[in-house]
Each structure stands twice: as C-alpha cells, then as structure tokens.
Design goal:
Layout (H helix, E strand, L loop, with lengths): L1 E5 L6 E6 L4 E5 L3 E4 L4 E5 L7 H10 L6 E5 L5 E5 L7 E6 L4 E4 L3 E5 L2 E7 L2 H4 L6 E7 L1 E6 L4 E13 L3 E5 L2 E7 L4 H6 L4 E14 L3 H9 L6
Antiparallel strand pairs: 1-2, 2-7, 3-6, 3-10, 4-7, 5-6, 8-13, 9-12, 9-15, 10-13, 11-12, 14-17, 15-17, 16-17
Length: 225
C-alpha cells in the first residue's frame, strides 16, 4: 500500500494505491473517488473492537456505526479519501506499543491494524473534551485527520498540551489532566482552562485549531432556530 498526502495542510487528501488483494478500512463517508474495479463494502469490523458492540461504541464516541472496506483485485487500485472538515492528514506506522487517538481523528488504516475504543475515565470527563479515545494497535499504517495543520512534538520528560489540540500520542507517554496556570482561578479566567500534562518519552501529534472552541465561536453567531 502506498499513501500520498496532497494539498496539505488546510485541505489535505489521502491518495491510496493498493496492491493486488490489499484492503483499506476507512471511516464511512470519507471516500472521494476510486478506481472503477475497486470492491467496496460496509462492515462493523469483525475481530478486536469490532462486531455490533464495537460499532455501537464507535457510534457513542461520535464515530460512524459502520466502516468501509476497499479491496483491490489487481495492483494499482486507487482510493482518494478526505476528512469531513478542512484540515491536515497524518500517515503513521503502527508498531510496538501503538497509538492513542482522539475519537474524531481516525480516517483509515490497513486491514491488520486494530481499532479499539478506550475510555479514559474522569481524566477526559474533566478535560471538557471527548470522553473516548481510540486505541490503535497491530502492525501497519493508520491515516489520521485534524482540524487545521498537524505538527509533531517529541517529548522527553514533561510537556503540556491544551486538550482541544490533541490529535494522537504514543502509548509510551502517560498523561494527567491539570490546570494551565499556577491557580485554578487564573487558568479559567485566562481562557486556557484544563490541559494534558504528558510524561515520558514519545511523540504527540497536535492540531493547530481547536474544534470545540471553533464550534462555540461559530455557534454563537448563528441565528436561533
């Protein structure tokens, strides 16, 4: 499988070229175009994190109930994918410990990559962001999307990231939710609110824009229904 990311960072598209017999699993509705001979089907994704229960978990987390599967009978089959919102796309090779991804950032992956819904408990509840994260394991490529540009941070020790700007982070990192400033009052009055404090060694992938903050800003300007 070959993946080329074009039109970065604000209107990124993933151009995927499949070998004979290869399968691409993707979020339902993200396909733009594909070769005429590609076999496309819909699945609840059997196996780890799959089946009806896995599909319902994804639905609760804000993901699609179903996943699309694209299979090429010959080499050279093309599939073009794009996220629902304008932004960037990241291609990540899953090996070892795997990756933790915010529930709305998954776009597609190779068929031997496992997608399992995780629950981060009160740490995520109090962050004001999504309660659910996706645990990405297995061996292969995963394609992630963002709101705005994606940038990589290499952590060696401690690092703080605003909760609304996290796309994904490697499982070698631990994290806790904490205040942005020296006091709770100062953190909220300053507009920063809660942040994630990461510890360890690994990579964090961040997005340049906060989807929640953008939605609240736009929503306040829309006429009442």
């Amino acid at each position: 499988m070959n993946v080329e990311i074009v039109h970065q960072p604000d209107s990124a598209i993933a151009h995927v070229t499949l070998e004979s017999g290869e399968e691409l699993v993707a979020e339902a509705g993200c396909m733009i175009a594909m070769s005429g001979y590609i076999n496309a089907s819909t699945t609840l994704r059997q196996g780890k994190g799959g089946g009806i229960l896995g599909g319902l978990k994804r639905l609760v987390a804000g993901e699609s109930l179903f996943l699309s599967v694209f299979r090429s009978p010959t080499s050279g089959g093309e599939v073009f994918l794009a996220p629902k919102f304008m932004g960037d796309i990241l291609l990540y090779k899953v090996v070892g410990m795997g990756l933790v991804v915010q529930s709305t950032s998954y776009l597609a992956s190779e068929s031997n990559v496992d997608i399992e819904l995780g629950f981060q408990g009160f740490k995520s509840v109090f962050s004001g962001e999504s309660v659910f994260w996706l645990n990405i394991t297995g061996n292969g490529y995963v394609i992630l999307s963002s709101f705005g540009a994606i940038y990589e941070i290499n952590v060696d020790g401690e690092y703080i990231v605003d909760t609304g700007h996290i796309v994904a982070f490697e499982k070698s990192l631990s994290f806790e939710i904490t205040k942005a400033g020296s006091s709770w009052m100062g953190a909220f009055l300053g507009g920063e609110g809660l942040v994630c404090k990461f510890k360890g060694q690994g990579k964090i992938y961040c997005q340049s824009h906060n989807g929640g903050a953008f939605g609240r800003e736009i929503g306040s300007k829309l006429p009442a229904r």
